[in-house]
Each structure stands twice: as structure tokens, then as C-alpha cells.
Write a structure and sequence with these properties.
single chain, mainly beta, OB fold (Dihydrolipoamide Acetyltransferase, E2P), 5-stranded mixed barrel, globular
Length: about 120
């Protein structure tokens, strides 16, 4: 049953080129944003588009694969878990953010430039 806890699956497009950070320890981190889209009808029957942006972090071998395979605009399916972070702003306010820590991904469609 633990496999079902804190498990996220998303399908979307990369909002920018992934940022790769290589640490002195030899560990790699890939950071990028993923846009997911929904269509729904509002109370007046008009179709509306809603885009959600998700911050994604990938470590180790997944980061290396992302560096080789992914670029802005590509559509992927990813699986991961939610991680809550807190930090202090420059003005001293405590802020919170939620990221998706990627465990695996699948490339779904090429970018328009590759067609």
C-alpha cells in the first residue's frame, strides 16, 4: 500500500529548457517547469482553458536522462512525489512551495521542430 502514498502522475509540456546543476559530490539535479492543461465548460457553457505550472526536480540518473533527451516544448508523462519546501524571503517572510520530485518520465511526442 505504500506505493500508493504521495504518488503523482502528470502529462504536460516543458515550459523551458531544463536547468542542470552538477554538484562537487558528482550528483546531478535537473530543474524544469511543466505545463498541464485542462478544458472545461463554465456556467455559461463557454469552453475555458486552464494551465497549471508545476516545478519539477530530478536527481541522479533521471537528471542525466533529462539533460540528454528533453527540451522546451516536449510533451512528457512523469511520475514522482510531492515535496513541500519552506524558505525565508529577503524581507524575512516565511514562504512555502511545493515541487514534484521526479522518479521517472516517458517522452510522449516530439517538439514541432522535430516533425
Amino acid at each position: 500500500m505504500n506505493a500508493l502514498r504521495n504518488n503523482v502522475k502528470l502529462i504536460g509540456r516543458l515550459g523551458a529548457q531544463p536547468e542542470i546543476v552538477n554538484f562537487e559530490s558528482g550528483r546531478s539535479l535537473a530543474r524544469f517547469t511543466l505545463a498541464t492543461n485542462e478544458r472545461y465548460k463554465d456556467k455559461n457553457g463557454q469552453w475555458k482553458d486552464l494551465t497549471q505550472w508545476h516545478n519539477i526536480n530530478a536527481w541522479g540518473k533521471a537528471a542525466e536522462r533529462i539533460q540528454k533527451l528533453l527540451s522546451k516544448g516536449q510533451e512528457i508523462m512523469l511520475e514522482g512525489r510531492l515535496v513541500n519546501q519552506s524558505y525565508e524571503s529577503k524581507s524575512g517572510e516565511k514562504r512555502y512551495s511545493t515541487i514534484v520530485e521526479l522518479s521517472d518520465f516517458l517522452l510522449l511526442a516530439p517538439t514541432k521542430a522535430e516533425n
